[in-house]
Design goal:
Layout lengths: L1 E2 L5 E2 L5 E4 L6 E4 L14 H4 L9 H7 L13 E3 L2 E5 L9 E4 L14 H21 L5 E8 L11 E7 L4 H12 L7 H9 L5 E5 L2 E4 L7 E8 L10 H20 L4 E7 L13 E7 L12 H6 L8 H9 L3
Antiparallel strand pairs: 1-2, 3-4, 5-6, 6-7, 7-9, 8-9, 8-13, 10-11, 11-12, 12-14, 13-14
Helix pairs in contact: 3-6
Length: about 325
Amino acid sequence: MPDLAAGGTWTRVRLRWRRDPLTGASARILTGVKLQPASRPDLAKLTAKPAFCPFDIEHLETATFPFPAELTAEGRIRLGKAVVVPNIMAYATHSAVGIYDPGRHFLDLDDLTPSLVGDALAAMVRHAQAVRRLDPAARWSSINGNHLPPAGASLVHPHLQSAHDAYGLTGQRLLAERSGAWKGGRGSYWAALADQEAGGPRWVGQIGRVAWLTPFAPSGFHEVWGVVSGAADVTELTEEDCRALGQGLSQVLAAYGAWNLTSFNFGVIGGGPQAHEHGHQVVLKVLSRSNPEPVYRSDATYFERIYGEALIDLSPEEVADGVRTRF
């Protein structure tokens, strides 16, 4: 490559190409200038409290709806400050939105404390368990988040979303299928991975049943995983697991904040109907996104960045109708 500091002299630099040992997905790790921002952007204008936000406490009861009684007698599921309500967008057969704290319109990374995140995850798990009791066919479950517009969030008020159905998401199915096909030894791929990485250069730490590490071939910037031993599906997460995931995710976000980052996606990934047979373990994946720029929202959410699944608003047939007239 031309070296700008040397007047364009051609120079050999190191480019690392890595292949994920489970999925086969590859990643390229650059040498040289890093993409982390030198300073944090001013979020005041973007995150200022608007006249109306459906997740703000003064509007929540009128702008959102309770779950049907056959799903839960609670109407809206509450734990600590967290509130879980039905999703008005049909992302899956069953989907919910979890609001970390309706009393605060915006939460920066250091505001997403272990207890706040842990309670929100535990409340979403309660919803997942209620869905599974009502609809046993909805065996693919995940809990996810888009934080700020660069991560695909349409609302600034921090929230989570879930998906529960009989189909799963592309990356979710891939993890489960490849876990089941793994021939590296007896037991679970994920247990073997945690054992291999423990204490090594990609090891982060252990909280409860959750092993924290960075992936060998990341799919996004600053990606960190939390692997939950003993839980194959989202519905099997205990409150202790949710507290451990909340603590670990909060600590990852603290590191993001120290790197002047502001936006992120995460997913808590269940293993589907054959989770136990496949030796799957629940995995939390979190990765950073670009910092906000004026009038900017990404069209890639956790669906695309974590699961490799398109989320689009027009069918191919509608697109063809619109383009056909130009031919």
